[in-house]
Design brief:
The protein has 284 residues and is of the alpha/beta class. The protein has 11 helices and 9 strands. 46% of the residues are buried.
């Protein structure tokens, strides 16, 4: 039976909530429920400036209260600079450092206050830190399918940056549809061309989507050879720059619907997923 990896992203779902701070205990209860489901990875928090992302200021506290005793899921934390990477690497429980690398100069400046060139240098440092501390880096190619700022974008640009990151030692590269503009044709073209060219890279799909377009996106990525998918229960979160407020994260329950129909093994426990799904409704 074919297998795919599902990465659940409660961090992405929570980080944009500015109206109130989700209490640490609520985050812990929710993430603990996710750890029982069988996700390959849980993107649980980030070590970034509390000024930039106030919602994630308690990531270390959350981590200290997670029950990992019976979970096979690996933990991923987002970092945006060397300081964040060093902070994250103090914790043995964290397997992956996630780094958002934008191929849109405008978005890189808005997202991390750095140029693409500066961001490349930071990524190089983070890769070195990860190697020394037995972690792996998941690089997200932000604005991988286009951007709203008028920066030049085409599939060759994505290919160019994939090549550069591969030569730097990136082994997991998640193409990110940051503002939900990707269509099936572009998704299919990129994955079907890049995956055979870079057998040393595990390609992932971090797709944001309008509720009407999820199937086309997942179907295109999977049939083009992608076996790693990011999701968030009920599609919570997503990029605030997306033009349509209905555009959010890829809903995990839609991924499950799709892969169940395709008879693909996701390793997820349906009862534990239902429990986590209900817990999500208490958080959001």
């Amino acid at each position: 039976m074919k297998k795919v990896k599902i990465i659940e992203c409660p961090r992405d779902a929570m980080q944009g909530i500015k109206s109130h701070f989700i209490p640490t205990e609520k985050k812990v209860t929710y993430i603990n429920s996710l750890l029982k489901v069988g996700f390959d990875t849980v993107d649980f928090g980030s070590f970034v400036s509390p000024k930039a992302i106030p919602q994630m200021r308690d990531t270390a506290d959350v981590l200290s209260q997670l029950d990992l005793s019976e979970s096979k899921s690996k933990l991923l934390a987002i970092v945006a600079n060397v300081r964040g990477a060093l902070d994250a690497c103090k914790f043995d429980e964290i397997h992956y450092l996630g780094y958002p690398f934008s191929i849109s100069e405008n978005f890189q400046m808005r997202n991390t206050g750095k140029t693409i060139e500066q961001s490349l240098s930071i990524l190089s440092d983070i890769l070195n830190i990860a190697n020394k501390t037995n972690k792996k880096v998941v690089a997200y190619l932000s604005m991988g399918f286009g951007n709203p700022y008028g920066d030049p974008w085409d599939v060759d640009k994505v290919a160019k940056w994939t090549d550069i990151l591969s030569k730097m030692g990136v082994e997991i590269l998640s193409l990110s549809d940051t503002i939900g503009v990707a269509n099936g044709e572009t998704i299919s073209y990129l994955f079907s061309n890049l995956i055979p060219l870079y057998p040393n890279i595990e390609f992932g799909a971090h797709l944001h989507t309008h509720p009407n377009q999820w199937f086309e996106k997942v179907d295109a990525a999977y049939k083009a050879g992608c076996n790693r998918f990011d999701g968030a229960i009920k599609g919570f979160g997503g990029c605030p720059m997306a033009k349509d407020e209905l555009t959010g994260n890829m809903p995990t329950e839609k991924l499950l619907t799709y892969f169940t129909a395709e008879k693909v093994n996701t390793s997820l426990n349906p009862l534990s997923f239902e429990s986590a799904y209900n817990e999500a409704l208490n958080v959001f």
